[in-house]
Inverse folding.
């Protein structure tokens, strides 16, 4: 009996260590340019089954096996960072008013609404709560957080999540280095480049020369643009490629809706024709099922 108990305790410890190290292993895949599988990012968490940007939405994404959860950040009147997409409370909570004009005490009295505009049991999480919740389990892409990144970084240090954070943006390499400075030793920064713009290829090469980013997020509207196909080869071994499948004009029509009809023409096209190894989706379970069927996700 004693031996069985010891074996069980050892097994549980191993599980705990694996869970703690999962974010680190995803970070390593990014930093080493691993293209053996496709990394899945879930937009605002798993918002189809829980309120967007909620702790439950983060939990669901982790349980599915999602690699990156995207969260939005705003600051309250009394300088507390919370997770919410809109600048106002109206759409996603039972409250009213602008976040910047509301105190955290008021926001804590509210309940989050789900995608059908129905009140739920869930509360609005602070960024500190969300980072603590995600610690060691999943990478976190913070949107709209660059406006107060000094304060964000303090929370990252406090929660021990400094190496779990991904930031993205449209700024030049010069502006990125000025804005983030020494934070870039921990934070992974990915430039966003619109491939429909005339200087897109020059912009990509300038970023590679100045910052050597681990990945780029690309946007384009139509497959008549030859650059997305060209970049599959020109970026091989230099940077990973990220596409959003949230709506059609972000990835040449190869979005979640296309993938629901024919995933090979949606997700499959991005992977096979454009060399995509990171996909952000509003349908994480559907994407994960497709990737696992193809042997492209653990």
């Amino acid at each position: 009996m004693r031996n069985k108990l010891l074996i069980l305790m050892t097994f549980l410890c191993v599980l705990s260590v694996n869970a703690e190290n999962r974010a680190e292993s995803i970070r390593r895949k990014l930093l080493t340019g691993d293209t053996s599988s496709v990394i899945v990012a879930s937009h605002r968490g798993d918002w189809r089954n829980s309120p967007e940007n909620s702790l439950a939405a983060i939990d669901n994404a982790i349980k599915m096996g999602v690699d990156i959860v995207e969260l939005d950040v705003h600051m309250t009147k009394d300088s507390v960072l919370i997770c919410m997409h809109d600048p106002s409370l109206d759409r996603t909570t039972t409250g009213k008013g602008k976040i910047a004009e509301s105190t955290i005490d008021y926001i804590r009295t509210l309940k989050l609404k789900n995608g059908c505009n129905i009140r739920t049991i869930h509360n609005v999480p602070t960024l500190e709560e969300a980072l603590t919740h995600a610690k060691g389990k999943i990478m976190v892409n913070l949107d709209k957080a660059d406006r107060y990144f000094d304060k964000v970084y303090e929370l990252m240090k406090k929660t021990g999540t400094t190496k779990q954070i991904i930031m993205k943006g449209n700024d030049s390499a010069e502006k990125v280095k000025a804005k983030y400075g020494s934070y870039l030793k921990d934070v992974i920064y990915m430039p966003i480049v619109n491939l429909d713009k005339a200087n897109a290829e020059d912009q990509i090469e300038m970023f590679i020369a100045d910052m050597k980013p681990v990945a780029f997020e690309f946007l384009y509207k139509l497959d008549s643009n030859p650059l997305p196909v060209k970049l599959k080869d020109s970026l091989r071994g230099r940077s990973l490629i990220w596409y959003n499948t949230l709506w059609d004009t972000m990835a040449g029509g190869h979005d979640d809706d296309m993938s629901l009809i024919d995933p090979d023409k949606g997700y499959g096209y991005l992977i096979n024709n454009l060399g995509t190894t990171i996909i952000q989706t509003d349908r994480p379970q559907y994407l994960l099922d497709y990737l696992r069927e193809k042997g492209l996700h653990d």
Summary: The longest helix spans residues 2-20. Confidence is low (pLDDT under 50) at residues 14-20.
